[in-house]
Structures are given as structure tokens and as C-alpha cells.
Amino acid sequence: xxxxxxxxxxxxxxxxxxxxxxxxxxxxxxxxxxxxxxxxxxxxxxxxxxxxxxxxxxxxxxxxxxxxxxxxxxxxxxxxxxxxxxxxxxxxxxxxxxxxxxxxxxxxxxxxxxxxxxxxxxxxxxxxxxxxxxxxxxxxxxxxxxxxxxxxxxxxxxxxxxxxxxxxxxxxxxxxxxxxxxxxxxxxxxxxxxxxxxxxxxxxxxxxxxxxxxxxxxxxxxxxxxxxxxxxxxxxxxxxxxxxxxxxxxxxxxxxxxxxxxxxxxxxxxxxxxxxxxxxxxxxxxxxxxxxxxxxxxxxxxxxxxxxxxxxxxxxxxxxxxxxxxxxxxxxxxxxxxxxxxxxxxxxxxxxxxxxxxxxxxxxxxxxxxxxxxxxxxxxxxxxxxxxxxxxxxxxxxxxxxxxxxxxxxxxxxxxxxxxxxxxxxxxxxxxxxxxxxxxxxxxxxxxxxxxxxxxxxxxxxxxxxxxxxxxxxxxxxxxxxxxxxxxxxxxxxxxxxxxxxxxxxxxxxxxxxxxxxxxxxxxxxxxxxxxxxxxxxxxxxxxxxxxxxxxxxxxxxxxxxxxxxxxxxxxxxxxxxxxxxxxxxxxxxxxxxxxxxxxxxxxxxxxxxxxxxxxxxxxxxxxxxxxxxxxxxxxxxxxxxxxxxxxxxxxxxxxxxxxxxxxxxxxxxxxxxxxxxxxxxxxxxxxxxxxxxxxxxxxxxxxxxxxxxxxxxxxxxxxxxxxxxxxxxxxx
Length: 733
Fold this sequence. Notes:
Blueprint: H1 10-18, H2 27-35, E1 40-43, H3 50-60, E2 64-68, H4 72-84, E3 92-95, H5 101-112, E4 118-121, H6 123-126, H7 129-136, E5 140-145, H8 165-172, E6 177-181, H9 186-195, E7 202-205, E8 213-219, H10 223-233, E9 238-242, H11 246-258, E10 263-266, H12 272-283, E11 289-292, E12 305-310, H13 317-324, E13 334-340, H14 342-352, H15 357-375, H16 380-387, H17 401-404, E14 409-411, H18 413-425, H19 432-440, H20 445-449, H21 467-479, E15 483-486, E16 492-495, H22 497-504, E17 510-512, H23 539-555, H24 560-563, H25 566-575, H26 580-583, H27 591-597, H28 599-611, H29 631-641, H30 646-652, H31 657-669, H32 677-680, H33 686-698, H34 704-711, H35 717-732
Parallel strand pairs: 1-6, 1-7, 2-4, 2-5, 3-4, 5-6, 8-13, 9-11, 9-12, 10-11, 12-13
Antiparallel strand pairs: 14-17, 15-16
Helix pairs in contact: 1-3, 2-3, 14-15, 19-21, 23-25, 23-28, 31-35, 33-35
């Protein structure tokens, strides 16, 4: 195929260049707008075909289109695709820091020769004087800004260098412009048009509804096991798992691999060649799953991603929408599962500290919207579309967890009236949190500063409901059009005309009761469930396991907790382990303990499973845990073997004594024996050690508070922790 300036209609060019016979949605109108040399602004969801909107006119126009793109990986992907349609390799190039001097010279030569129709550049490359001078001398058809939300401070991936683009373009030459984004609230859209100085641009906004995507939010508990189960249920299908940190990406990728799933990590800490290799292997389907930070996915053209999992909740709904949008781009099935814990939100809030106040306020508002989405019980699709300024008719989309799992509804007439009254009485100048505190009668500094405690609404809803309930009413009032949330003032609420009408004459209305997301304290400790125990799933088996534990303990002259603690037994009633290998995956059961005490337990469970014809298909997923690559763990074991003082070991790793003891307790609980007798000799005499060992032998639990009460100040907390370590090492392991 020859890519030259030819006099074809957009439809003819579409078939000539790309082999398609018809456009999707408004693509044809957008292409025509660019060909008519009009400034153009496109808001189109991921998978809607944004790239074609600038690629096709670039191939049809005289000169070279300059495409600003934020990621090298995205540029490479797009250039490879364009070259794949045939013609000369020089038809598309990128100009960035990854090129050698000779490669950069070749790019410029192809552009001067009129071969290159699209040149992808990073915004940073445009600031270089030599590039500005070069581009000023060539024929430019138009500028295209991909991922245009990066321009706005309210966008989910704001980049300061994007805000300078208009100035740089003016320095090069004034030509038409097309800006494109897959996600933009009304505020972000205004910001983009204003910053690029294209107020009269033709604006094309496609629907944000992706009916083929299923949205689900799960409480963040036992995440690794849940992810492995999900991926194995979708065996052989392509998926992306997003994590907040590089460390978590590595951990999850490795855990998937040792559990027989073909997975690779991807994050900005890897070198460019390795990232490119992992991306290519995913695109070529050598691996099924990519575990990544948000660095992965922008512009990745893989149409058959069947699931997107968020191990950690994203920092904004724009991020969430764009990342989930990478599923089902071919119109086929796409499952979007997010694990939610409010602790993740608190972590993200910490990241905002130290930033300018305005940036912190924006960040907090974006996080508040994300929390609302995660915790809501109304249709998730309806909530998401409302966020982007679109109304979904009806209350049940049939393709989100809140719509497919029946929810409880309540008569909200009085509650809605109370919320609207509180907003009105407080002069429509406060956010949702203030209104909740006002209604529940909660004393906060903001309530005092604005004399909220003097208002009639103060405490008016406190006896009947808590803050979570009132937040639910506010969310649904907002989506239902009774309240307006002003983004400019970081989320202040005011009454809409509909809200004023309702307040004058309240009518019957039903709202959904919110779900409670009670999450595991150890949500980040993916391989295990928490040690507090959530109750036995099979009480009959639990009773049998307790009896067996009592027998084994008596035989070994040990307290029952030394054999297995209750949370371990409870988990056995959920997982039904029938081999020692499976038993080692139970919380608090290391390999040593399984070998020492485990056989009668797995024998009992195997017999019980057979007699009661118990199906172990899903809940028997055995998560093989990855040996923690903690240099601390290895360092501690090696140095204890060398009989170094614990203070020296802690100092060498920059740990407090408390933190070192925590690491040691983790090591011992996983089944590794630590011999700290050499250190204890200088701390406690033989009689004292024997007294504490006798206590732990006879005690019903290894609870430290109980031990401190028992000895009533005779030993410090640190001494008792050390003795507990000695006891568990020598007796339990």
C-alpha cells in the first residue's frame, strides 16, 4: 500500500489504508473535521477507536502530523501498528530519548523526504531547541495531542509539561489541532479547551457506557488467593492486574507464576528493554497475565483482554475508568474486579502530604469520589456514567455486582428531605462530610468554626443513623439530580431545581442500602488470612479438630495453642486441606509444624471430606506462597547463627528493637527455628528462663498481655517476647 496524499473520501481512504469498510460511531465526522482544518476535541472511551481519528487524516493530508504522546511504549506500539499496514517503514516514526544519534538522523531524513506522515513525540522532546528548529522548517499537517487529560490538573494523570504545549506549538507554527482523551469530566474538558486555546473547537463526545464490561468491587481480604482463583477460572484468557507499588507488582507476578499461571511484571523501575519485552510477550500471548503499575496500558492495542483486576483501588475514577476500559475492547466479555479497603485510600492520602494546598484539595476530592463509587450500593454503571456527565436510564444495568446481587432498598423520603434541609440551612457552601457530621451531631473543628452546632439540623439524624448512612443518601441524591456538587469549590453541595422542588413537596422515593466493606487488617499480606479468625465455616469439623488438637497436645505434653491456634483450625474448616503440602498454606502452619503435628489433622479432614461428600473445587485453591525475598530475613537468620547481639543486627538494618522482634516473630511463625539462647543468657538467668518457659507450656494462649498480667512487672515486654520466641522455636517448630 502506498501512503501518499491522494484525493479519496474518508470512507475510501479507510478501506484503502486500514481495510475497514465502515467507521465506528462518530469517527467519520471527526476525520472530516480534521480534513476541514478545524480544531477538534474528541472524548471517546477506550476501545472506541480514537487513534484512527488522527491517523487516517494524517495519511490523507500533505505534510507530517505531529502526535504528542506521553509514553514511549505507547509510541512504539502505534508506530509498529501503522507500519504493519504496509508501505514504507518511514510512514510513521517516533522521536524520543530512546533513539541513537543515527536513528534520530534517519527519522529527520524521512520527514524531509515527505515519507513520514505521523511523527510521535513526547512533550519533553518538544522543549528541546534543536527539535523546535527542525519542526519549524517542515510541512506540518496538524498537531494531535493524545491522552489530552494530562493537560488538566483535574485529570487523573496530570503532567505539567503538557500545559506548555500551546506555547511550544505557537513557537513552531500555527496549524490546526486535534486533542483526544478516553476519560474527561466536564471540568477537565473545560480545562483542556482553555489551556490549548481552542475555544471554538468542534467537540465530539461519545457515550462512556461500555455495556460489555462487568463491574465488581470486593472487600480486600485474602487477595492473592482470590486473584489466583479468579485467573484459574478464566484460564488461557488475557488479563491485566494493576497494583499501586512496584514491590507489590513483583510479589503478585511471582506468586501467580509459582501457582502455574503465566504472568509477568511491568513497572517503571524495570529497564526499557525488559518492559518492551514483557509488553511484547503479552501482546503475542506468550503470557496470559501482566501485573503492572499504571505505567502499563496507555494505548496498548490488545482487543481481547478479558479481565482487569485492581489489587489496589486507583486514586481517581478517571484512572479506574481508563484502566478497566482496557478490557473487552473487541466488544467481547470484559470483567473488572477491584479489591477495596479504606486503608488504601489512607495510603493515597499520605502521598498527597507535602504537595501544594490546591493540589492536595484536588487529590482529596478525587479520592472522595473513588470511595463513593467503591462503597455505593446503587448501580455502579449509573454512578460511573453520572460522574462523566452522562445519564443512564433506569436503576439496573444488569452488569455490575450491585445490580446482579439483590440489594435492600429503603423508603428515603424523610432522609432525603433532611439532607436537603441541612444543605440549605448551612448556606450551600459545604461538602458531603460536613453535612454528615452536621446530621449526626459530630463535633469537628469545621462544625465549630462554621457554628454548625447552632443549626436546627445539628444532630437531627444522629439517633436513627450513622455517618455512613447519610453519605449514602447524599451520593444517591447527587446522582439522582437533587444535589449539585461543585468541582471548582472542591465538592461543595447545593440544591438543584429538582432538589428545591422536592424540599417544598417531598414524595415517596427509595434508595439502596449501602454495602459494608469490612476488610481484613492484613489485606496487604496477600498470602495469608488474618490471624484473628473469622469463625469456623464448618462447626462440626471444627469440634472434631479441637478434640484432635487436645489429644495431640496431651500426648506431647503441650498447651493446645502450641499445636495449632484457633484461626488455623478455622481456616482448615474453609479450605479442607488433605495433604501436608496443602496444610502448609494454612495461616500459622509452617513446613516444620506441618511435619511435626500435621499428619493426623489431614487424615481426619480427608476422611471427613470423603464421608460427607464435600466438594473442594473452589475453596481448595492452594496458594503456593513465594519465599519472601526479604534481605532482612536472611540477614537476621545468618547473624543469629553467628551469635551476634540483637542490637547490632537491628542497627545494621536500620531497625528498632521492636521492628527486629516483629521480623523474628514472623520468621518463627513460618516454621523456622531461631536459637537465641546465647543472647538470653545475658538477659535472664536460668531460673527466670525456666519460670517463663513453664508459663508458656501451661498457658492457654501465647497472648503477651496475659503474660504481662501474670508476671505483674517481674519481666519486661521485650523479655517476654524473647522468651516466647525461644519457646515457639524449641517446642512448636
